Amino acid sequence: MHAVRDLRVLLRLRDFRSLLAARLLSQGADGVFQVALATFVVFSPEKQTSPAAIASAMAILLLPYSLLGPFTGVLLDRWRRRQVLFYGNLLRTLLAMGTAALIVAKVPDWLFYASALAVTAVNRFVLAGLSAALPRVVDGEQQLVMANSLTPTAGTLAATAGGGLAFAIRLAGSNVDAYVVLLAAALYFCSALSALRMAPQLLGPDPAGLQPHLREALLSTVRGLVAGLRHLAERRTPARALIAMTVIRFCYGALTVMVLMLCRYLWSGTESEGLALLGLTVGVSGAGFFAAAVVTPWAVGRLTPFGWIACCAAIGAVLLPSLGLFFTPGPMLAAAFVLGLGTQGTKISTDTIVQSSVDDAFRGRIFAIYDVLFNVAFVGAAAVAALMLPPDGRSAALLGVVTVLYAVIVAAVIRWGRG
To answer: What CATH number belongs to 228-419?
Structure first.
């Protein structure tokens, strides 16, 4: 009830409503586009999907977020943020329309990937602009706290709804990938129009606060990241937590590629059946993520953050071979839930460790490094899986490697606790 009341207070603010609408439409479009890209790469009837193609798609979806992330703030603090939201979404509209045209034209894969990469690269600027603009559309610190609590959750729900809508459209008929991408383009355009409801100067930045030269601003960002790495190297606790999170994220990424291939070739007779099974698997894993949000505070209170990380890794090391080696949907769905819980539980614990053991002056830079590690580990896992997986995705060797990595993290965390 408190959340409903807080939302009512914020929705009385016209500019907040406009910014929220831009966020919901933008992230809803992201959900549609990302699912459209994934299903086109994996489940198009005319494509013989390979683990390498899946790895390429994951790189397109994740790497721009990480590699551009530390530098987007520099440019967002020099450009009018309202204009970033408008022109960024307008540019994504055009790029998404171009991507749809490339799907229809059946162009070489590299050209399609280049177009999709452009869409996701612009996305980083838009999302950062939405976050940076939030203090400009609320009144006072109390409303800002409420807005920071409510808007990211609403955006995540919008992305989830967009992805679900894309799944539903894709299941309703074949050869509809271009239409799903066009739906994303339409939502991007609506988000751009929502930004126009705000005055150009409303969202900042103030010209007086800018660094005089862009080159100096970019160099200061690089120097700041280097200083953040040095700060991290001097503190074993957050560094160890990031190592554990990176390895566990790697394991989750490798298993994700395996499940995609199993859904596509081993567990289904048609593309529609495989897509429906994949949607079920993603939903079960998402339930594991939700369960982690509920269980982790209790577990950390009794086991400490590192103790819970060790427990999450141990669950993976024990249950993965006992469930996964059957290579049948039922046990693998159970594994998806357990690994979703363990992966998210580890992330929540790592967030807590980093927030509590890193100096406040370095926290933003450490989290920027964390973001890079988090996504690069996932993409790197997809690349390794591409080298190890057979065409149908059934690989006891990959399961063995992942099981060993989970066990290594358990042993490492236990050793760190004794040191």
So the answer is: 1.20.1250.20
- For the chain, domain boundaries: 1-204, 228-419
pLDDT digits 0-9 by tens, 1-32: 455 676 678 888 899 999 999 999 999 999 89
- Distance, C-alpha 220 to centroid of its chain: 27
**The two structure tokens encoding residue 140:** 């006072």
* pLDDT tens sequence across 326-372: 888 888 889 999 998 999 899 888 888 887 888 766 776 777 788 78
Measured distance CA(9)–CA(115) in Å, rounded: 41
Can you tell me the distance from the alpha carbon of 237 to that of 366, in angstroms, rounded to the nearest whole number? 13
Q: Does the domain spanning 1-204 belong to CATH 3.30.70.100?
A: no
Lookup: tokens for 54:
């899946």
Query: What are the φ/ψ torsions at residue 223 (nearest 5 degrees)?
Result: -60, -35
Same fold, 1-204 and 228-419: yes
Token digits for 59? 């790189």
Q: 234-286, pLDDT tens digit by residue? A: 888 999 999 999 999 999 999 988 988 888 888 876 777 777 888 788 888 88
How many Å is the maximal CA-CA distance in the chain? 63
Distance between CA 59 and CA 67 in Å, rounded? Answer: 11
Residue 315, C-beta contacts closer than 8 angstroms, at least 6 positions apart: 338, 341, 342
**Separation CA 122–CA 115 (nearest Å):** 11
Q: Which residues have C-beta within 8 Å of that of residue 292, sequence separation ≥ 6?
A: 340, 341, 342, 343, 344, 345, 348
* C-alpha closest to that of 173 among 32, 272, 29: 272
Please state the pTM of the whole predicted model.
Answer: 0.75
Mapping DSSP onto H, E and C, the string for 82-108 reads HHHHHHHHHHHHHHHHHHHHHHHHCCC
User: Which tokens in the block code for residue 223?
Assistant: 């120097």
- The 10s digit of each residue's pLDDT in 117-171 is 888 878 877 877 887 787 888 887 667 767 765 776 677 778 888 888 888 888 8
Distance CA 309, CA 413 (A): 8
The amino acid present at 157, given as its one-letter code, is L
Residue 321 preceded by cis peptide, ω within 30: no
Q: What is the pLDDT of residue 164?
A: 83
Which stretch of DSSP H or E encloses residue 387? helix 360-388
